[in-house]
């Protein structure tokens, strides 16, 4: 496996908001050139602006991860400006919640298409170029929901468990080509995804299950992404780095409070 002294070029899906945005900013601070892709081009442009204003190198590119036909052009456009991609961060994702017995096939398919098929097709596309060049880092944003069931999360939890499966599969099949694939499994992180549906009351119920008793931040997750993307992580492959304030480690009572 080739060794590198620096980060190189990163491509981030869902980079216009939350965890993707924080990862883009931190990777740039660590010296990476960063392509910020998102369904929401304006949001991606804002992040690219933030980075260039701080002296970093970044471009914004429109990319819906479910539109795979648009992928080659979007990637070529970004790589023509920043160079070939060394690091892929799959952060684009959606959560749609419905009660299990009423869960609609349309909702289920939408979540699977963005979170699983999108991650798979985008990763597969980048892995071909990384494979030719003999170096690559793929980092998937999974979730503790892929390891523990949650009410209404038949699609989201299943999609995140599938991402852990994809992570292992890529790790096995691409390791010989100089590519490592790992996942970060965030706990509950304060981003537009959660603030859209969490009231103060929801937060206090959630924090009752988190030993560190504070809300996770996108920067907490970006630190894990940057580590897995770094030259120091060259022997870490197929791993899941859980960043959840101890949520998964703690024993829960039936009422969802901490068992201490
Ligand atoms: P967010 O909503 O702030 O950011 C998600 C971004 O993905 C948005 O900019 C959105 O435009 C983009 N996006 C959505 N669908 C897309 C598509 N089809 N193609 C391209 N871009 C698309 O949410 P976040 O909290 O930063 O979530 C990022 C990732 O982290 C997601 O995969 C999410 O499931 C995961 N995650 C979040 C939490 C949390 O508590 N916030 C916890 C665990 C895992």
Automatic annotation (TrEMBL):
Residues 8-192 form the Ketoreductase domain. Its EC number is 1.1.1.47. The keyword Oxidoreductase applies. Keywords: Oxidoreductase. It comes from the Bacteria. One of its GO terms (molecular function) is glucose 1-dehydrogenase [NAD(P)+] activity. InterPro entries: KR_dom (IPR057326), NAD(P)-bd_dom_sf (IPR036291), Sc_DH/Rdtase_CS (IPR020904), SDR (IPR050259), SDR_fam (IPR002347). Gene3D superfamilies: NAD(P)-binding Rossmann-like Domain (3.40.50.720). Belongs to the short-chain dehydrogenases/reductases (SDR) family. PANTHER family: 3-OXOACYL-(ACYL-CARRIER-PROTEIN) REDUCTASE, 3-OXOACYL-[ACYL-CARRIER-PROTEIN] REDUCTASE FABG. This is Glucose 1-dehydrogenase.
């Amino acid at each position: 496996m080739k060794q590198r002294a620096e980060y190189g070029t990163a491509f981030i899906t869902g980079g216009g908001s939350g965890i993707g945005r924080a990862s883009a900013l931190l990777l740039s601070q660590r010296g990476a050139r960063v392509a910020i892709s998102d369904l929401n081009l304006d949001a991606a442009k804002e992040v690219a602006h933030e980075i260039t204003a701080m002296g970093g190198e970044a471009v914004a590119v429109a990319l819906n991860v479910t539109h795979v036909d648009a992928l080659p052009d979007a990637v070529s456009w970004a790589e023509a400006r920043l160079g070939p991609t060394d690091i892929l961060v799959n952060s684009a994702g959606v959560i749609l919640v419905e009660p299990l017995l009423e869960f609609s096939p349309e909702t289920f398919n939408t979540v699977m298409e963005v979170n699983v098929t999108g991650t798979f097709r985008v990763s597969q596309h980048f892995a071909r170029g990384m494979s030719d060049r003999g170096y690559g880092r793929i980092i998937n944003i999974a979730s503790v929901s892929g390891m523990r069931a949650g009410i209404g999360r038949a699609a989201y939890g299943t999609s995140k468990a599938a991402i852990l499966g994809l992570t292992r599969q890529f790790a096995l099949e691409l390791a010989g080509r100089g590519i490592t694939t790992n996942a970060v499994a965030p706990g509950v992180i304060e981003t537009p995804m959660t603030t859209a549906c969490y009231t103060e009351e929801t937060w206090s119920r959630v924090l009752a299950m988190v030993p560190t008793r504070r809300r996770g931040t996108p920067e907490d997750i970006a630190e894990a992404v940057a580590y897995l993307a770094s030259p120091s992580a060259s022997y870490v492959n197929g791993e899941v780095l859980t960043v959840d304030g101890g949520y998964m480690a703690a024993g829960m009572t039936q009422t969802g409070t901490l068992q201490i």
